[in-house]
Amino acid sequence: MSAPINKRRSTLTQMRLVSIAGLTVSLFTLGLIALMRIGVYSLGQTVKEQITFSVDIPEPMATQTQITALEDKLAKLPGVMNLSYINADSAASVVAHQIGQTREEMLGLLGYNPFSPMFQFQVHASSLAPDSLQRLEAQVAELGLSTKLSYQGDLIESVEYNRQRLEWIFWALLAIQLIFTFIQLNNTTRLGIYADRLKIRTLSLVGASSWFIRRPIVGRSLLDGLVSAILAIAVLGIFVVGLEHWFDLPIAQSLDLKLLVLAAVGLSLVSMLSCSITALRASRKYIRMDGNKIHLI
To answer: What percent of the chain has pLDDT over 70?
Structure first.
């Protein structure tokens, strides 16, 4: 008697392990798409924050005391970071280097230094929206500096346009993979409950309530979903570390930590909710099924 029971338990365990493995693969694919989506977003934010803004300092305000005061005020403006002061000679040296000449050669040809001292800075990606830049320009103008910031507007527009296009592609891929993942979760969960259909039928015949029968099934499905999500997240972590090692790329450092945490939580919730919903639906089917049909499926 014990041999058939042990054999049945072994079969159920194997089916459960196969189910968890299948869920893990589906969740890994879903997580990989989410990871690429986060990577594109993080890369776009990084590129935006590398864009340099500059504002010229009028000659009457170019004394050291005034420059120090202006630098303190500029640094306190919302979104401003990595603020630096560049004097006229340094600006000439930078431009001369870009055109392949020394500063003395360039100034000798021009006969004078056409450059003014300036401040250069970057802006947080969250402050790069057109309305935010307009407010920043107004605040800079209130300090008596140039009313127009010098920056690569075309680059900002290009980065934002490409980021939005890629985001739409990844959202579509996420939606499609989410559907396939739900189908996989539904099939594997139903397969596990199918093995318990006779037990479910027996409990329903002896008068057990619907929730009494479903509770252990849903609890097991929730646990399987959580285990599958943890395994998928672990495999994703190993995958990222492997890519970093093989290609010598700082992938993990370039990803937004908050988004990674949200993605991990979201992946776990999708897995657990889908497993519990399919478990409820499948168990309901066998609880209500005619006793003559339960042996035919």
So the answer is: 76
